[in-house]
Amino acid sequence: MAETATPEVTPGTIETTEEKPKSNLEPGYLVVCWNDPVNYMDYVTHVFQVVFGWARKKAEFHMLQVHEQGKSILKRDSMEKAEHYVHQLQRYSLHATMERDE
Amino acid sequence: MKLIRVTKSNFLFQLGKREKHLLTQVLRLYPRIPPATFRLSKSGKLPDAEANQRLLDESLAEQREHNRKTLQDFLADPRRFTDTEAGSRLSLSRSELEWLLQILNDVRVGSWIILGSPEQAMEFKLLNEKTAADFWAMEMSGQFQMRFLEALEKREA
User: For the segment B1-46, what is each residue's pLDDT rounded down to a tens digit?
Assistant: First the structure.
């Protein structure tokens, strides 16, 4: 018989083994920015700073990821928040979408 | 276009006569991105995908209409540009500059879409009499965009 590990239960927490369906409030959605040859790198960095309130270094990191790898996952959030960020990025005409984190 | 003064809340630019004309010409092209261009999701695996896509389209259309009206007022305001011997001075608040970046990028991306969304290496091959105006709009809006971004960077430095 294979050994089974005893689950560790910390006081004050309720253990549950049931798998819950993803609700719209769970951070199960990804905000993705896709590469295109028209948006300037400096502009994309600027938009990331404005929309997410990131420092320049972090914004540049994601901009370079978009540029070099074709896309960057910018956030993992609830459906409502992911939708909000996608709306904001598209107002700046960036190619952004939200995808289910599977 | 040259940034001549920057404070915490304001940017003052000096433009030559020709530059002022070019900037207003480019801005008058707004909006250029065709409606319903943007998709909410690439995979399409979202709950209520159609309804959410419709909401996004409506939200962007509302924003576009609001921008169009604001831009009309912006361009019609005689105090917006102050004439000088060398040309004009343009004073912008931080939020106006941010807003103009969105407007200019709409013109840039919209022109690129009208041109068939070419890869950079292909652009030169597409340049001809028919496409020249769209190339002009794409490049010119990009030039003003870069000047505004440089101004923002200067303020942050």
Answer: 999 999 888 999 999 999 999 999 999 999 999 998 999 999 888 8
Test B101 with A46 for CB contact under 8 angstroms.
yes
Put simply, the chain A residues between 6 and 45 with a CB less than 8 A from any chain B CB are 24, 32, 34, 36-40, 42-43
Distance CA A81, CA B140 (A): 35
CB contact under 8 A, A42 and B149: yes
Strands B81-83 and B87-93: antiparallel
What's the one-letter identity of residue B94?
Answer: R
Q: What is the ipTM of this complex?
A: 0.92
C-alpha distance from residue A47 to each of A39, B34, B62, B63 (Å): 11, 21, 20, 17
pLDDT value of position A23: 60
Write the residue in B42, B106, B119 that is nearest to A93 by C-beta: B106
Contacts of B142 in chain A (CB under 8 A): 40
Query: How many A×B Cβ pairs under 8 Å?
Result: 72
d(CA B41, CA B108): 23
Q: Taking a contact as any Cβ pair under 8 Å apart, which residues of chain B between 51 and 70 contact chain A?
A: 52, 56, 59-60, 63
Each residue's pLDDT tens digit, B45-73: 888 888 999 999 999 999 999 999 999 99
CA angle A81, B108, A56 (to 5 degrees): 50
